[in-house]
Design a protein that fits this description.
The chain is mostly helical. 7% of the residues are buried. It has one domain. It is built from 5 helices and no strands. The longest helix is centred in the N-terminal third of the chain and has 15 residues.
Amino acid sequence: MASSKTDAFYTNIVKLLKDQCPVSVELIYLLIRNAEKLTLRECFIIDYQIIEHMATNYDFKEGVRCVLMEKGASPKWSYPTLLDVKSEAVDNFLVPIKNSIPLPI
């Protein structure tokens, strides 16, 4: 039987995840799930690709708007919930950007 302390921990995690960008949560889940199959170098390259994509991503800009500019505003994510996120939205972050400066590692 789970303790009330454990239940509270999981309740807080679920609440925290519900407040985050659904695409980002899916992306992080994918990265964690696949990380053990990759070398450290491959992980750095993938992280770099994701950062490049984030710089022009609507959801990133929306998060910045709500957290830094209009503090406390409710973000309007491109996909409202985790169940709405399409796999292509996550997979696009893993595609190298054309004419990108390669990570020097």
